[in-house]
Design a protein that fits this description.
Elements lengths: L37 H7 L6 E5 L4 E5 H7 L1 E6 L2 E6 L1
Antiparallel strand pairs: 1-2, 3-4
């Protein structure tokens, strides 16, 4: 099974320091995500809502950016493959 993903990242300049803002594990991951149908999602998501979408050729899942803002990581499965969706 082949999954396609888009990876976006930025690099820090050598003079920049990484500053810890919150303690380790202060932002809880979502370990048991709940999903709704696309039709139900259309009732509360706007047309321009930012999501991270995954499709494995059979199943499609969308992870809302506004939910990920508060959690940053979703531990899930796409078919039989364990995945981590990060924001």
């Amino acid at each position: 099974m082949l999954l396609h993903a888009v990876v976006l990242y930025t690099m820090l300049a050598p003079s920049q320091k990484i500053v810890q803002v919150v303690q380790k594990d202060a932002i809880p991951a979502i370990d048991d995500p709940k999903f709704v149908s696309a039709e139900e999602g259309d009732r509360f998501l706007s047309d321009n809502e930012l999501v991270i979408g995954l499709f494995d050729g059979e199943a499609a899942k969308a992870y809302s950016a506004w939910v990920l803002d508060g959690h940053e990581i979703v531990n899930d499965r796409l078919g039989d493959i364990p995945i981590a969706v990060t924001w």
